[in-house]
Protein 1
Amino acid sequence: MSYGLLKGKKGIITGALDENSIAWHVAVRAHEEGAQLLLTNAPVALRLGRPKALAEQLNAPLVPADLTQVSDIANLYDEALRHFGGPIDFLLHSVGMSPNVRKGKPYTDLDYDLFQKTLDVSAISFHKLLSIGRQKAALARGGSIVALSYIAAQRVFPKYSDMSDAKALLESIARMFGYFLGKELGIRVNIVSQSPTPTTAGTGIEGFQSMYDYANKMSPLGNASAEACADFIVVLFSDLTRAVTMQTLYHDGGFSAMGVAEELLK
Ligand SMILES: NC(=O)c1ccc[n+]([C@@H]2O[C@H](COP(=O)([O-])OP(=O)(O)OC[C@H]3O[C@@H](n4cnc5c(N)ncnc54)[C@H](O)[C@@H]3O)[C@@H](O)[C@H]2O)c1
């Protein structure tokens, strides 16, 4: 069902790799709500994933950008400004990757070059997106920016390894930029901390299925789906949440407030 929540709004969606991606669902829902979109993903994802199919489905331009590269981000905003004829009203950061996790390096024995890569791709890319967007006057007054996190930023999930540190940094960047962009332009910056979700990034974590099942049993509402996450994010992009900023908002079926679930005790 569409409520026209994003009618007349323009936004950039990063990270839609395939039909399972959280960003894919956000793009589809934002389009249904009347938004005009520009999609972006890493050049390798354009070759191996399905972003082109989504861009065709939504009639949206697709701009390749490695979000660790300042020049790629600058080009992304130039394309967006040209395409929309002005600044964007919303932005989704939906990007994460840890080469340490991919190579099975335990947290106690990280490869430090790879650790830097994890932080760059998964957190500092958000700083770069906001900083360059601000410099280029590509972020509209009163806009809304959302990035995705996981509760391992606050609590220990051993196999999440250095992604936990990346998410803690990402959440801090959201608070800091939330202050500056709020003061200057009335822009909101929030984090959505999502349940385990079966995507390429999610299932790359060792023991994903066990973590998924555990969280599902622990959460009174069960795990939140990617579709439900997209609904929530669309509301955050809309004018209905115009006083919410600098928050980590848990979209997790209640998991973050639980101590113990009777079902798991048995
Ligand atoms: N899946 C989960 O369980 C879960 C839970 C909480 C939060 N998240 C977060 O949600 C976000 C989206 O992940 P997802 O689960 O939809 O997985 P996904 O694999 O579908 O999306 C990750 C995206 O990051 C992109 N990416 C990686 N490196 C990049 C780079 N250098 N430049 C540009 N893009 C790059 C990939 O191409 C991909 O599209 C991530 O931040 C992830 O950490 C996921």
Protein 2
Amino acid sequence: MTDAINFIDSIPSFAFTWTTFFIAVIILFLLRYRERLVAFSIKDALRTCIPFDPVRSQSFHTDLKVYLIRKLTDFIFLIPGIYVLFWVSNGLFSTLSGLDGTPSSHENSPALVLGVACVLIVAAEFNAFLWHYLEHKVPFLWELHKVHHSADHLNPLTNHRAHSIVQIGKYVMKGFIAGIPTGLIMYFYGFGFIELLAIAAIANKLLTVATLDALRHSHVPLRFGLLEGVFISPHMHQIHHSSLEAHWDKNFGTNLSIFDWMFGTAYRPHKGEVMVNGIYGYSPEQLQAFHSLRGTYWDPLVRSFECLKRSLKPVSKTALGFDAKIEGAKNDKAIW
Ligand SMILES: [Zn+2]
Ligand SMILES: [Zn+2]
């Protein structure tokens, strides 16, 4: 079992992603051929497997550029979050050690490691759900998150189509949320901080592989049936990208759907449910403005800063009456 986990962990994530994607799109082609929806030809196979023009699509070019930039720079944006995680967990560990003396130590049995992995996964998934919810509801975060929703077509690279600066907030919040169980596990079970980081990373990788993360940003509408009560299926996340009003603000979870069910944002699509990629209220022409590095990085940052400035500005008594109504109508999705 341990060997199998180590073997899976040694395979790079992109290998899983692209292998899963191509196996799935070939199966999709064969199914459509069986239903006589496509012909058995190279042209139809290509159209089914990659339903956009990777050479001419500006949206795909932007996905690719953002992916490469994030691969090279993400570690910088993760540093504050790791520091907060260490600060919170170590602070809790030291406080408990000071109050109660020697920390506990246990034999690291497979059952204990599995239990620890489950706790860390639930904490990370709750953070991802909450952060994603805030990205949709807080106007200055929404300006940055629009980048992810502006893709014309979903493909595995779209998973990384997000403003780099957002990673700071997401991982700092994760430091506070996951720091508490991490500190408690360190104290009560004698695990080291680095050891827990490794367990969390391997558990997250296994979960993303098991829930077919590679297909979430794809045109393969795979559903999980009753398992959608616990896990986010690819079709559930595709619905999250739909600009249709019925689909908006649904399915915020990453791998687990439990928090969507708890907080009333879960949406299970039915077979063949139609969706339209994009942002609610934006025309395809307006989305073109996002398909460049300036439209992905600089413009959203400026709009986000303007939004933040507006929300921090003191509001005059007269503005409270008239302007607030206008702002309310404009930002009817906002909680701030
Ligand atoms: Zn979103
Ligand atoms: Zn997405």
